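Person: Please work through this fold.
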Amino acid sequence: MAGGTAAETRTLTTGGGLRLAIPECEKGLGAVILSPGSPQLIEGVRIEPFSVWPDDRGYFLEVQRMGAGVAAHFPADSTQISAALNFPGTIKAFHFHLHQTDCWTPARGMMQVALVDLRVESPTFGRRNTMYVGSMRPWRILIPPGVGHGYKVIGTEEAMLVYLTDRFYNPQDEGRIPYDDPSIRYDWETQRK
């Protein structure tokens, strides 16, 4: 187990073939992911760089091509596309799903993305990943069910996250954990070190 043992957990929920728990973690960021193929990625998380085409009017980016890339398996009849605009310093964390898979595309600004594996049976249970993504690192991030996810807007400008989900929004499928959970102990402080 990457971040704690099953005995060192608080049970969250069971469903969708998953048993989820909050692991006991040391304070910190976990593994900072610097490449899409990092061996430190949480099991099932996928990263796909995408291109941004700037010119004197602004820029263009493709959010997703249906049937291609990390979200190729998303079904056309239930895929939802959503967006969230966030002000500098905003923290939205932690969320998790029992069934839904997310595919995040940061379309504007910069974000510190935090992931934590909540799946007790996962080989990476308890592992945390941090990614700095957005205009300076354009990556799509596929987040499977059972992986807690959240982000902080870093820098001085607003950030826009566009995300695809493989099923329509269902509030019964979404769980929440406070961003400052005392067991996950994710360090949201700016790391000016």
